[in-house]
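Structure first, sequence second, as always.
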């Protein structure tokens, strides 16, 4: 959040988790694949919550498990389906405790969306 907060007034901020395959394997061997994945999902969901609490009104979350973790962290209980970004991936509207005026949200699992998905999503909304 310390990195992202000053950038929020200048446009979309991309937050992602990545590492070299050997580094991922080493962590998974030490912690187990499920635990390693859960740690990443927890971190990204807490960042999503922090962004919304900082005033962000639009989120794109990629990854099915990460999407579920973010929805849970944000306290979302209902989604209103909006315009389709790509087949199978719409913009949605949700009211959350952190943003009672509403949040625009796209939840994209790994198998959906074209190569230009992220830029198309923000252009569409």
């Amino acid at each position: 959040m310390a990195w992202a907060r000053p950038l929020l007034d200048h446009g979309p901020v991309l937050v992602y988790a990545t590492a070299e395959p050997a580094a991922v394997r080493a962590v998974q061997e030490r912690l187990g694949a499920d635990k390693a994945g859960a740690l990443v999902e927890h971190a990204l969901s807490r960042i999503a919550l922090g962004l919304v609490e900082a005033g962000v009104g639009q989120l794109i979350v990629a990854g099915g498990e990460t999407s579920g973790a973010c929805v849970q962290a944000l306290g979302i209980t209902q989604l209103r389906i909006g315009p389709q970004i790509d087949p199978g991936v719409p913009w949605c509207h949700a009211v959350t405790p952190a943003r009672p005026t509403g949040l625009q949200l796209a939840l994209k699992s790994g198998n959906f969306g074209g190569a230009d998905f992220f830029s198309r999503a923000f252009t569409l909304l």
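Margin note: The longest strand covers residues 99-108.
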